[in-house]
Amino acid sequence: MNEWVTDAPTFAVVGKVNMGKSSVLSTLLEIDDDMLIRVSSTPGETTRCYALPLTFDDKEMIRFVDTPGFSRALEVMRVIQDLHGEGTPDRATIRRFVDEQMEKGEFEDEARLLEPVVEGAGVLYVVDPSKPMRDAFVAEMEILRWTGTPRMALLNDKAENSDRTEDWKVRLGSYFNLVRTFNAHHARFEERRSLLKSLLEIDEKNKNLIEQTIRLIGREWHQRREESAEFIMDFLAKALKHRETEKIDEKEEELEHRKERAKERLRKRYYSSIATFEEQTYRKLLKLYRHKLLKIEVVDEKFHGLDLSSEETWQKWGLSRSQLAIAGGLAGGAAGAAIDIGTAGLTHGFGTVIGALTGAGGAFFNGDSLPELKITDQGVTFHGDRRKALIMGPPESDNFAWVLLDRVLHHYQEIVTRSHGRRDVGTIDCEGEGWVRKFGRERRTLIQKWVIGQLKGAERSFDADVFRELVSVLVEVEKS
Amino acid sequence: MAAGKKVSWSLENLVDFEVAVRQSPRVDSEVGRRIRDEIRAENLTDLSMRRWGFKEWLRSKKTGAGGKVVSVTRLLAVILLAITFLMGIGVIRGIVTKVDGNSSLNIWVLLAGTIGVQWLLFFGGVITFLLARYWVGGVGWLKHLLSSVVRNLAGKISPDTWRSLIQGKGKQPSALAWRLTRLLQLVGVGFNVGLIAGLFGLLWFTNVHFYWESSLSQFGGESLGKLTRFLAAAWGGGGLSDSQISGLKDIAGGSGGENWDAFFRFIFAALFVWGLLPRLLLWGLAVLKERKALAALEFQDVEHRKLWREISRVERTVTMEGMKDGVVLLDVGGVGIATDAIRPFLLQRLRVNPEKSFAVGILDESEEREAWQAMKEAPCGVVFLVEGWDLSPKQIMALVARIRKEAGAGTVLRILVMGDGIAPPDADDFKTWQEFVDGMRDPKLECVAFEG
User: Which chain A residue's Cα is nearest to B351?
Assistant: First the structure.
């Protein structure tokens, strides 16, 4: 009975120790959990074969087998040749080698790694092209060729465009049906999918299952992207509508230093709430994209210190003043135009003009206003206790939304481009460039209209058109 | 129905769906699995999958609300058609006056009361609609009224569900709103058919006189000529000639004659072209728009998206277990070497991975429990970390016996003998350890020397 090969297409990932086999699998299967796949720079980290099935809806679609790796390939080659005698060794000889060595234990690792191959698993041979070609590698390729199974070579280009890559490609080309490059530390979704597509070329008999797997992976990604867009919309709507209220007594109202203290408390609470909303969003995104090692560092001070009147902020995040004014003008103009149409032109286009001017002017002049503290004149009722209150939020500036969106998009990119094969603990920081300035006018106007609606406390935070646009934005962010 | 086929949605389906999605969005596991299996086998676009999948889901969720809404709109259509038909007849009957004992119709009043009022209402409605769309969210007041009548008659549909049905979704128009528009246009159709029938009946059954004479100069013959020519231009006619208009002027004029024949032809054509036809066209347009809206349903509301996620959820399940090479590292006697320092040796020589480590002798009770549990679960057993010079036979024997008791007789035990620090042990020390271990005669216990 086969231990490794099942009804699902099975591929053994083999190669010399420390070539990054486990790392390739981690990236391909999106697993950054050492309990499931151990990745480290210590040679020999993988001590035995183990199955890594890709299962959808309880159905195993495809299976990879991680293997310990060749450590004595030249000696193994000679032993197999001796076992076979004259001529070229075949799979039967290798099976004999495996059976014998499983008992003897002299070449235990090689016997283990060849076990799934002699059972019929396809071969993914991983090499690091930054390493020089040695005889041991040739021996490995020769042994794999003798197995007669469909095989593909993967250049796990850790050093990126190593000088030896071309030489490796030429050499591998004579031993393998297919040679592909795959950087386990940088491969994005498209590269992962493309690698799976390559499997079709070496395993035609399982074409249907592999194609179905590729489709499912595509749909899963699409679903994640849509969910991400929903999370981002939710976060923006929440942040834009958020208000913090603190009742103040007469002393606090009249004594300036006490009022200042109350204001400071409230300000801190407001920014802390926004930071919490943002953090919750990132946690959801990290879970969605199956990241355990990527950490978030969102502290409310970052928001607190976000000064929209500083040139640095304007240069980095959100829309520029002119873009903000144009977006505001177009959104205001559209609202005014509805009045012109409503009056069958009796207003002679004044609605459009006034709407556009108000929108543009408001966006331009309020562009650098942070959420403002207000003291209500009439007071606010707190369970029958009618006192004056300090209120903070929603923000005066439309750009606040754009700054938040910029940050989320920046972090989204960090999340989707982070490879699961990496084992360093990454942190999502605030360094980087903004995205929203690259948006086209139509997109800016559409989002600006939605932002204005949310700032005014719109009942529904979901808008299908804005959602679709946001999904397109995420596609662009993923590709760039 | 297979997922690949184009799926058509009716208004009844849509109402049922919106009600079900808000009332009981649960997905039966069997239904969900069937839908998933179908859509996974086909290479479909997201939209066609969604339209098909939701329709399949709806089959398991009959609410009956859609049927009621459609029945109510049909019933209302019949009632409104009947009422407005009678209203049309009534209007014609109402503008007939008795002059000199004869039934007479003032042509100006006839045109104003039939075609004029309708177009005035139409323009007023358009302006109100445009303004109201901005202020009350997409529904003109008449439609608003009709909407609440339909909702109340159709039964228990929550305001949220109804709002979602009646409001367009972004650029997507609402099919139900177009159904109501269709109803409103039917009101116009009924009224105009009533007008035509009323006029026909009047001419057929009574001897009616026509005249236009007025004391106001604006309503003179010239104006009437212009008006008839304007109205007749719609069907390529020339309207009434000056002589025909002159012949119609006199209030006391008798019936019959070619002037009257010309006016009959004109007024029926005008009522048809300016009254009935626009309503029929608008009604047809509303039917078309409703169909288009149903054909373009995208199901992108938050509730739809949530449900679709539940139905079509594509998510990998983690069924992998990882490598079964874990051991528990037990520091005997406080060797104090960091696990990371000997990890490569354990991995490369012993082919085991130190998953957890504990120190003997300093365990508190809870830590001790954790240690026994870890030893029981470790697939490759326990590695004792000892120093070559520090062999205390009784301690090791007691420890082995305890582990055998707590973790089971099958647990593999290895004694890793270290030298001074991270170094191999002295050969004599290691020999002593080997002899001691051999003496224990435990097939699952072995002694290994650290190799730096």
Answer: A47
Which residues make Cβ contacts (< 8 Å) with residue A13, sequence separation at least 6? A21, A24, A25, A64, A65, A66, A67, A124, A126
Closest-CA residue of chain B to A463: B170
pLDDT tens track for B415-435:
999 998 889 999 999 999 999
Backbone phi, psi, residue B298, to 5°: -110, -20
Helix pair A464-479, A399-417: axis angle to 10 deg: 50
What is d(CA A43, CA A41) in angstroms, rounded to the nearest whole number? 6
Q: Does A72 touch chain B (CB under 8 A)?
A: no
Question: Residues of A numbered 206-235 whose beta carbons fall under 8 angstroms of chain B's beta carbons: which are they?
Answer: 212, 215-216, 219-220, 222-223, 226-227, 230
Alpha-carbon distance B87 to A262, whole Å?
A: 69
Using the beta-carbon criterion (under 8 Å), do B134 and A342 form an inter-chain contact? Answer: yes
What is the predicted ipTM? Answer: 0.72
B362-379: average pLDDT:
78
| Tens-digit pLDDT profile for residues A433-460 | 788 888 998 999 999 999 989 988 888 8
- For chain B, the domains span 65-311, 326-449
Topology of domain B326-449 in CATH is Rossmann fold (3.40.50)
Q: Which amino acid is at B325?
A: D
Which residue do the tokens 């903004």 mark? Answer: A434
Q: Residues A77, A138: contact at Cβ < 8 Å? A: no
Burial of A162 (0-12, 13-18, 19+ CB in 10 A): middle
pLDDT tens digits for range A266-277 = 888 888 888 889
Residue contact A42–B133, C-beta within 8 A: no
Residue among B336, B18, B46 nearest B162 (CA): B18
User: A10-202, which class in CATH?
Assistant: alpha beta
The answer, yes or no, to whether the previous bond of A394 is cis (omega within 30 of 0) is yes
pLDDT (tens digit per residue) in B84-109: 999 999 999 898 888 777 778 888 88
Angle between helices B11-23 and B277-295 (to 10 degrees): 50
Taking the C-alpha atoms of residue B313 and residue B105, their distance in angstroms, rounded to an integer, is 71
Domain limits, chain A:
10-202, 224-479
Nearest to B88 by CA among B197, B185, B191: B191
